């Protein structure tokens, strides 16, 4: 997907505990293991781990890639992103030289569930990967608990009681709600619920 809308695509492989790239793509239960990330500047992304929940950098936060930070060996060690929510990453910006006085945050490779302000016991033998994935859209299920500034909602594939309600109430203002493929018959509730 980034091939169609972005230039200068960077490929990121998982890094094993010895610091080597894991390039093999195995399948287990229909999931591709060790699939490389293909990212580029201006690509829309979603954070896939809780980097720092106290700072608003949690699983599901979306944004756009702004820059890549390289070390002296020309290896990319950080990705600078601008989150859709300006409040995400305020603590990070106070201590990061790359993000200070900018509306951005840096993301580094980490182990899964490695929250900077939580005492989590992570397996040091597991591979490290950037906690990002491409994200042009989200399912209603993924947005539960989120509040967004703008929302485009397609009702074409709604199923289940209350799904339409859940989707509609993710945005802050009615002016920022855009409905696509409106099917009013798909908005219904479970009449057995309630008093």
From TrEMBL:
It comes from the Eukaryota. CDD domains: SF1_C_RecD. PANTHER family: ATP-DEPENDENT DNA HELICASE. This is DNA helicase.
């Amino acid at each position: 997907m980034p091939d169609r809308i972005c230039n200068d695509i960077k490929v990121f492989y998982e890094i094993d505990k010895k610091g080597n790239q894991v390039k093999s793509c195995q399948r287990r239960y229909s999931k591709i293991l060790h699939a490389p990330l293909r990212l580029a500047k201006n690509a829309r992304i979603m954070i896939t781990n809780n980097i720092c929940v106290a700072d608003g950098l949690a699983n599901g936060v979306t944004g756009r890639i702004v820059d890549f930070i390289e070390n002296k060996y020309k290896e990319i060690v950080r990705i600078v992103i601008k989150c859709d929510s300006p409040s995400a990453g305020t603590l990070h910006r106070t201590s990061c030289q790359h993000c200070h006085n900018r509306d951005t945050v840096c993301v580094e490779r980490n182990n899964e569930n490695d929250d900077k302000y939580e005492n989590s016991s992570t397996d040091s033998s597991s591979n490290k990967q950037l906690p990002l994935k491409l994200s042009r859209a989200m399912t209603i299920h993924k947005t539960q608990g989120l509040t967004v500034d703008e929302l485009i909602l397609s009702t074409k594939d709604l199923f289940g009681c209350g799904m339409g309600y859940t989707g509609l109430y993710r945005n802050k203002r009615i002016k920022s709600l855009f409905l696509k493929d409106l099917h009013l018959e798909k908005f219904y509730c479970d009449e057995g619920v309630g008093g």
